[in-house]
Amino acid sequence: MFALMVMAGNQEFPLMSVLVWSFIGAVLGDAISFYFGRVFKNKIPNTWPFSKKPEWLEQSKAFFNKHGGKSIFIGRFVGPVRPLIPMVAGMLSMPSGRFLAVNVISAIGWAICYVLPGYIIGSAMRLDIDLPENFRTVFFTTVILVICFIALTIWAYQNLHPERSAYQHMQYVFKSNRTLATVWHRLSAPRTDEPTFPLTSLLTFVVCTLFFLSWIFWVDYAPHPLLTDNALLELSKQVYNESSQKVFVAITMLGDPNLLYFCAGWFAIYLTVKRQYSAMILIGCVTAVSYFSVHFLKEAFGHPRPELLIEPLNSFAFPSGHTTGATVYFGLIAAFIAQETEQHKRWPIYAIGLTLAIVVGFSRIFLGVHWFSDVLGGLLLGFMIVALARVIYSPFNQHSIKHNKTDIWLPIALVTTYLGYYGYEYTNQLTKYAWLDIFSR
Asked: What distance in Å separates the CA atoms of residue 252 and residue 236, rounded to the nearest whole number?
């Protein structure tokens, strides 16, 4: 797959076509496997090769029984039983609607993760970019760090909640020291008989802070723009035209600050009605922190944007404000929704929030208004703010948010705001993001 994507990038295949067809292929592949499992579930164990290797099915069933629906998502990316998971899900009568939702969401991430790296390298090879002497060291170090970060995130999600031994061990360590015991007590959420310490949020904040500090050091130290920045900029030039511009503008508007302020206001009103005053204040403070931190960092680094627009934007590039805002907004909303959901059902909520933030970030790259380094910096900064906000909010998280039928006004208000904003601002946004040479393409 990686080799094919390198070839696609090297031969100038349209990126959007490659992504779309990769996504369709991923969805159809798992859907067909699921269908075979649902229809032929009693015949499959007696059919070759499973009649010769019954342990393959047993391992897949054990994996599915352990992880449930999220095994579809996990199996899309990792695991020796990856090809069999959708079929086993069909054999074990997983609801079709639930499978379809996970299948589509995971296919989006799969298409991006499996297509872009090879495509970028192939495009870079075609562009004959001279690699710096330390490029390979930096590249492989970055890959290792990303893999470690993903592995740590999965481990934290699975183990750092009160029912697991890792959480209980950390609780014992903290309570063995008087100072740490005080920290544990004051930061624990008093929603249950046994207050819950925000261990996952605290670990996320520490890890993202380390990554962010390392990244801003590298961005400030290395010649700007970075090699990856230039490679993705060239890709943007290949896929940008009047049709793709309309798609990218529609996506990037999801992270438009003015729209996010409106929607955050609706959520603040909703929380006030529910008498969740601490949560309402939290949203206001997080909004202010996001705004000022982005503007401070932009002025501190002073990195210029790509010079592609007819009318250049009047702010600096690093970090991406749209990406930071989308990460904070969708991440915080996902966290509030997830806290009212059972532990094993939370991961799709976080996955949707993360996907929306990443999609907004990449739209900034393909609109030619940000470098990749700006978007990654915005994502890390957004994660830091959300994680720290959840840690600070934890001792005030005393009561669950009780939903009722009258809460329908909130989604109606949000949808109306989105549609109204798009109807009013979309044409202006198309003009705002028009390139100098758009009509010559």
From this structure: 14
Query: From CA 40, how far away is CA 430, in angstroms rounded?
Result: 51
Q: What is the mean pLDDT of residues 117-135?
A: 60
What tens digit of pLDDT does each residue of 402-413 get? 777 777 888 888
For the chain, what are the domain ranges? Answer: 2-102, 230-440
Integer Cα distance of 54 and 75 in angstroms? 19
In the block, which residue shows the tokens 């094993």?
Answer: 344
Give the pair of three-digit tokens for residue 219. 């961005």
Helix pair 165-175, 135-159: axis angle to 10 deg:
90
Output the six-digit token pair for 88.
């086993």
pLDDT of amino acid 120:
64
- Max avg pLDDT among 8-17, 130-139, 331-340, 369-378: 369-378
Residue environment code for 36-71, b if the CB has 16+ CB neighbours within 10 A, otherwise e: bbbeeeeebeeeeebeeeeebbebbbebbeebebbb
What's the mean pLDDT when you consider all of the chain? 79
Classify residue 194 by its DSSP letter: S
Do 417 and 209 form a contact (C-beta atoms < 8 A)?
no
Cβ distance 50 to 44 under 8 Å?
Answer: yes
As to burial, measured by CB atoms within 10 angstroms (0-12 exposed, 13-18 middle, 19+ buried), residue 392 is middle
pLDDT (mean) for 19-24: 83
Question: To the nearest 10°, the Cα dihedral for 106, 112, 118, 123?
Answer: 160
> Which uninterrupted H or E stretch holds 137?
helix 135-159
Q: Show the CA angle centred on residue 88, arms to residues 87 and 93, nearest 5°.
A: 100
Q: What is the pLDDT of residues 268-327, one digit of tens each?
A: 888 888 888 888 888 889 989 999 999 999 998 888 888 888 888 888 889 999 999 999
The count of other CB atoms within 10 Å of the CB of residue 211 is 19
Alpha-carbon distance of 341 to 357, in angstroms, equals: 21
Q: Which fold has domain 230-440?
A: Vanadium-containing Chloroperoxidase; domain 1 (1.20.144)
